[in-house]
């Protein structure tokens, strides 16, 4: 089966908002890294009955089954950016034996990579996403990961005290890729970040900028968290952020 990088597929040219970009050194570096990130994804060129893509991280081929009927049913570029970051910064952001939760996990790629890096992972999303999420996570981590990942429902802002009581939340990292866009649950998303985050928790969040709404969310987010931009990919309109709770005591 012939495989090609999605970066070279015409259908992915929409990823590059490269209007009149000058060939500056920064642009060149951005394109180099983005090419490398996108080269981690391969899709079969032959038509098959199930839709899947494969990704290459942590020395593993990760096969992701997708569906075309909702936002969480495909792998979004922000997820690749976050996976690439986790892989290439594994020393600084060591996942081994860490408690990690992913919100809006979708097809599960980020959770799978965190799990292959050695974390105790809880992958969460809306109830209708959990079947496919569980399938992808199980097939890609079974006999490969140090700790068996969990899949749990987490609808932002819903039953948090019951399903994720603050007293038992003990997450070292919260991971999130492309969870901010034109949906009506942005305030609930913020509440969820706040609920899951302890003083010692680090949020790693890849964010795709599309509309003004995203900038407003960042402003709201900064009221509760200290936000640091750790990477930027202008050709994808994606930024990678690290955040911790505001006014936390040093640990
Ligand atoms: C754009 S997709 C990103 C999926 C995945 N993180 C990725 O980057 O490939 C947004 C994800 O957020 C989830 N989501 C949207 N609204 C949600 C809500 N109210 N509660 C929980 N998850 C939600 C969707 O189901 C979807 O998986």
TrEMBL record:
Source organism phylogeny: Eukaryota, Metazoa, Chordata, Craniata, Vertebrata
Keyword ATP-binding among UniProt keywords: no
Family matches, as PANTHER family: HEPATOCELLULAR CARCINOMA-ASSOCIATED ANTIGEN, METHYLTRANSFERASE-LIKE PROTEIN 21E PSEUDOGENE-RELATED
Gene Ontology MF annotations: methyltransferase activity
Bilayer-crossing regions: none
Record's protein name: Methyltransferase like 21E, pseudo
Single GO biological process annotation from the record: methylation
InterPro entries: Methyltransf_16, SAM-dependent_MTases_sf
Lineage top rank: taxon: Eukaryota
One CC-aspect GO term: protein-containing complex
Cell membrane recorded as keyword: no
Keywords: Methyltransferase, S-adenosyl-L-methionine, Transferase
